[in-house]
Amino acid sequence: MGHKAIRAIRRGVEQDGCRTVSRPSWPEQLARFQAAPVEAFKHLVDEHVALALNRNSGLFGPGKSLTDRLRRDGAHEVLAPATAELDRCRWAVYRVRRCYSAPARAWRAVEVIARGDRAHATALLDHLATGLRISPQVDGEHVRVWLTEPSTSYPRLEEFFVAAPDAVSPKARKGFEARWYGHAEDRLLSLEDAAHAIATAVPAAA
After folding, report:
1. Which parts of the chain have pLDDT scores under 70?
2. Which residues contact 99 (CB under 8 A, 6 or more apart)?
3. For the chain, what is the radius of gyration of the CA atoms?
4. First CA to last CA distance, the chain
5. Other Cβ atoms within 10 Å of 196 Cβ, number
6. Within its chain, how far is the Cα of 175 from the centroid?
7. Taking the model in full, what pTM does it have?
8. Is 147 helix (H, G, I), strand (E, B) or coil?
9. What is the DSSP string of 38-104?
10. What separation in angstroms does the CA of 206 have from each of 14, 26, 36, 111, 117?
11. Which of 113, 128, 125 is nearest to 166 (CA)?
């Protein structure tokens, strides 16, 4: 889910009974969400996907998710249907890559490597972590298997696998692969080959 999609979700929150995301208006927003949980919970599912692909994509800004606010204020009538939908909907395991040339300047690619129910996607992520001997990184409700290591130098590559609802179409900027493999080192290439072998060895979901 790219920046345009995330902005569209935020606009949807504003238009769907929440005209502003400023902090002073939160009690009014909360009341409207509680009054229309069938519509409101969809924003939580969208946010879940956005945060899986980019941890800074909370609907209220980095580290400020709608889910956290609703949980803090006990809006269980909104949280419960969102939880049920996350358990019921079709999931995917995504491969997310970013190639940074400078801070906040990145070429991005998102791929779907498998689809199935939540249990299947979670199991595949576990298989990847085990097979690659990489400790999964837990970030709130999300688990990521990182192939790259943290770095502050540029160009900088980021690559991870994450499971989330199947709501994002594969996408990459034209020329991305040439740029990516122009910077990827042998260690990363070996991990990518191993990850591909592990993913293809797992039977597809029914």
Report:
1. 1-24, 206
2. 106, 107, 108, 155, 156, 157, 158, 176, 179, 180, 183
3. 18
4. 25
5. 12
6. 23
7. 0.86
8. coil
9. HHHHHHHHHHHHHHHH-TT--TTSTT--HHHHHHHTT-HHHHHHHHHHHHHS-EEEEEEEEEEEETT
10. 38, 43, 35, 20, 9
11. 113
| Vertex 119: Cα angle to 44 and 171 (nearest 5) | 60
Alpha-carbon span 160 to 104, nearest angstrom: 18
Which of 48, 58, 79, 9 lies closest to 142 in space, CA to CA? 48
Strand bridging mode 91-102 / 105-116: antiparallel
Checking DSSP bridges between strand 171-172 and strand 137-139, what pairing results, if any? Answer: unpaired
The packing angle between helices 186-201 and 118-132, to 10°, is: 140
Question: What is the pLDDT at residue 205?
Answer: 75
Q: How far is CA 14 from CA 8, 68, 75, 176, in A?
A: 10, 17, 18, 34
Which among 7, 16, 6, 168 has a CA at the least distance from the CA of 94?
A: 168
Omega before 155 within 30 of 0, i.e. cis: yes
Residue 96 class from Cβ within 10 Å (0-12 exposed, 13-18 middle, 19+ buried)?
A: buried
Please answer whether residues 173 and 108 qualify as being in contact, where contact means their C-beta atoms are separated by less than 8 angstroms.
yes
> Per residue in 25-52, is it b (16+ CB within 10 Å) or e — as a string?
eeeebbeebbeebeebbbbbbbbbbbbb
- Written as one letter, the residue type at 107 is W
